[in-house]
Write a structure and sequence with these properties.
This protein is α/β, with parallel strands linked by helices. It is built from six helices and seven strands.
């Protein structure tokens, strides 16, 4: 189904999270005429990283985004792992302003997992996505998983990611893998979670849970439109 009037906003804590969690879904959505925007909140920048690494990850992101059909890439350049030092109202407002600008129909956000940056961004995105004001325009609000961080939770003490919505990316798994290969600075060899083998294996497993070839799993938080209308 044509979705040329629909806008998707993917909020990524760091460069590569958007491909790990939503690469196939973005590619499928864009291929059907939807507009995809990626907001990358934190950056690998000084004082914990060099400016060279910062610029490399931004360049990698642009290359990956082009492959999956992203229309606009926005970078807030907040310091990675140091988001907790930013006053909450100020941080929340920075996320809200982008949501207000894009006016997304679909808002995909990081799951509340082990990484402190992911938790803070989840909180800020939930504030921006409340079903009042600009949030009333959001027809789908869902959280995605990020290989490594989402699965390193403390069992029974922290939230466990259990998808209640899967998107079939069988026709887009190769594009997702190719996009992830753009992130040379972030890729590792198997058995590290952020490896191409693990990425494809997770998509295969999520597919098996939903009767699909390959899939991306989401924790659906709010939906006011039929899923088939997205694609």
């Amino acid at each position: 189904m044509s979705n040329d009037t629909l806008r998707m906003l993917v909020i990524a804590p760091h460069p590569d999270d958007e491909i790990l969690g939503v690469g196939g879904t973005m590619s499928r959505f864009a291929s059907k005429g939807g507009e995809v925007t990626v907001l990358t909140v934190a950056a690998h920048m000084p004082p914990l990283y060099t400016e060279e690494i910062h610029q490399q990850t931004v360049a990698e992101a642009h290359k990956a985004h082009k492959l999956v059909g992203v229309k606009e890439s926005i970078f807030l350049d907040k310091p990675a792992v140091l988001l907790s030092q930013i006053p909450v109202p100020e941080f929340n407002q920075s996320i809200f302003e982008v949501v207000r600008k894009i006016k997304p129909d679909i808002l995909l956000i990081p799951y509340y997992d082990r990484h402190i940056d992911h938790r803070l961004i989840f909180d800020a995105a939930m504030v921006a996505g409340r079903p009042v004001g600009i949030g009333k325009n959001i027809k789908v609000l869902a959280a995605y998983e990020t290989l490594s961080e989402t699965h390193w939770n403390a069992p029974h003490l922290e939230p466990n990611f259990t998808p209640n919505w899967c998107v079939d990316i069988t026709d887009y798994i190769d594009t997702k893998i190719e996009a992830m290969q753009c992130y040379e600075s972030q890729l590792h060899s198997y058995p590290m979670p952020r490896s191409l083998e693990a990425l494809k294996a997770l998509a295969l497993f999520r597919g098996s849970q939903a009767g699909m070839g390959y899939a991306e799993g989401f924790h659906l938080l709010r939906m006011t439109m039929a899923p088939e209308a997205l694609f």
